[in-house]
């Protein structure tokens, strides 16, 4: 007789809606009192999501609220429209995988994988089939009958992943930096496994990490977080090409986006960028609209060496040229004193670059550059710009 | 013979620097080896890090980086060989009698001292000897400003973030103004953005040439970003030492190529014939004219991940396969491809999305191939930018 679990009222895969805020302080007054500022967020059925941000950004707080380890100080958590805000992790039907392996050393690998199913009274034949499928996906088949005790950290973490994924009836599987203990050379293989698993099992997966490679590779939708806020949710391409907030431009990419102070003048065909007058074509000018002050963002990959006084180019002084093997990274200073900024350009390995101290003209206004007003990306006429 | 010319060059550099008043250490490891019990940690190593410059020790875990640094510092004595500091044999002389600053992976600070007192701690002896307290304060302030921890001078280390704590440890090492500074994977415990920022600041601080800097890392990309010189270590052996881009572009052996590439250089077993390069599974690429002088026989073809492209150019060779994973790293996408010649990795700039199992066609310029002989020694490397001077007429 299968054990009837209270969470069975939640059907297999669930849409998760958050409308909440969380503060560890009793009476939050300012924004900075919140670990998570008031926000609405939805995770669709069967999606692969990543919560990405530096330590202290609120990503782990959000994960703990979704799992039920933490109740938000205000607002609600809904699974398929049903409020679960105060329910425990068990009652939410959530599976979790942590940084460090959670396995029973005295059990065999197969017994470890079967444990979450056996616990819920799933029929033996069904258990065997599911354990076989998960073991196959995670390359654990050769070790199924071995005790977990003698295995490497990497194999143990694969067992932990398997235990998290073995149940078909979970609302979501939550991963908290699950590749921390994995040897760097093996990480990509596990990233591949996780992608395969998502394609095959169609579970809702939510993955917390501070590592851009893990987030961008694993997830269809990445939630970039900073200071308790979700500043952008989008695909890897969207975060790279159109960062909605300067923080996203900075955090995604190595090195991150270049930012320059700029202003537009009425009735002029130019912008003033870092105190230099730069001719800008009409399509780009429409991006800044009537805004006087804004920030121009352009990725190092989209900065090119230009002819002197070319449209969209600024003059800078070369401070460094680094040979990074597959490309050259040029750094140049724009402006002087406290208003100066460094602009980086990623150039083809065969490029001819000026020497340190020399002047260089760098194209910074082009179809790939982004205009930020009050830290938000402005919409613009894509067709005109490209 | 080679060694002597290197040493002579160093003596010349050292002399030149003395006249400029710098105190960077001239360190020479002369056939330094280390065994612990039956285990060899270091095979005899000859290395003279260029004085006043940055030398990266690059190698995987247990390649001997830390063992070598501990000998440089005087924390351990070598089993055989000599350590010379400014032409004086200091082998076996303990660390207390050497003027060395060290920074470790872990953020090591005095927990009960403020940030200010932590940074000033190496200067206590000078203070005892009658140095002006105001001078010491000014020095602490200057270093704290450079490392951007000035606002926290009054706080305790535990009140700071990991990145800030490591900045304090770095500031303390710099306050010492030691002629030799050793850094053992100092950024490995930080998030990648902090790592990126602090690494960049460090390269600027090291550029003063006041100290000889030795910096251990397992990360080939970090070595390239740091620049300077690189010593490649593998299982206790020093494989190659030279200017970092030169070692990267001209690895003398397969072992160096493997150790100094991330993602790993694609290595394809091949047969070199006058008609072409026979790769596994019937793929044959014609030999470029400039390489027809190479002797026929078994060889290994090396292709850098960055040499593989999605767009065809004149004269390119083609490689077809299916995508096993597209690893997206922000500025680059690393595509793992199953092909007729085995698994290869292509580094594509920007973000590229591929479904698992999607077909892909890659192109490579045959002039970008590396050729290694049956003895694993380099036979041919593509000409690199590093070989050419990067000079363009100013406008």
CATH superfamily of the largest domain in chain B: P-loop containing nucleotide triphosphate hydrolases
> From the 3D coordinates, which CATH architecture of the largest domain in chain B would you assign?
3-Layer(aba) Sandwich
Structural class of chain A: alpha+beta
List segments of chain B where confidence is low: pLDDT < 50 over at least 5 consecutive residues: 1-22, 386-395
Computed over alpha carbons, the radius of gyration of chain B is 24 Å
CATH domain topology of the largest domain in chain A:
Rossmann fold
Strand content of chain A: 25-35%
Broad CATH class of the largest domain in chain B: Alpha Beta
What name goes with the CATH superfamily of the largest domain in chain A? P-loop containing nucleotide triphosphate hydrolases
Shape, per Cα inertia axes of chain A: elongated
Secondary structure: helix percent of chain B: 25-40%
Number of strands of chain B: 20
| Unreliably modeled segments of chain A | 1-10, 381-386
State the CATH topology of the largest domain in chain B.
Answer: Rossmann fold
Oligomeric state of this protein: heterodimer
Order of adjacent strands in the largest pleated sheet of chain B = 6-7-8-3-9-10
Work out the helix count of chain A: 11
**Shape type of chain B:** globular
What is the mean predicted local confidence, pLDDT of chain A? 90
Report on this model:
The complex is a heterodimer of chains A (386) and B (395). Chain A has 386 residues and is of the alpha+beta class. Chain A has eleven helices and 21 strands. Chain A has a six-stranded mixed beta sheet with strand order 6-7-8-3-9-10, with helices on both faces. A six-stranded antiparallel beta sheet of chain A has the order 13-12-11-14-20-21. Chain B is α+β, with helices and mostly antiparallel strands. Chain B has three domains: 1-99 and 179-194 and 208-262, P-loop containing nucleotide triphosphate hydrolases (Rossmann fold), CATH 3.40.50.300; 108-177, no CATH class; 266-387, OB fold (Dihydrolipoamide Acetyltransferase, E2P), CATH 2.40.50.140. In chain B, 25% of the residues lie in helices and 31% in strands. Chain B is built from ten helices and 20 strands. In chain B, the strands form four sheets. In chain B, strands 6-7-8-3-9-10 form a six-stranded mixed beta sheet, sandwiched between helices. A six-stranded antiparallel beta sheet of chain B has the order 13-12-11-14-19-20, with no helix packed on it. In chain B, strands 2-1-4-5 form a four-stranded antiparallel beta sheet, with helices on one face. The model of chain B is unreliable at 1-22 and 386-395 (pLDDT under 50). Chains A and B meet through helix 6, helix 7, helix 8 and strand 16 of A and helix 7, helix 8, helix 9 and strand 15 of B.
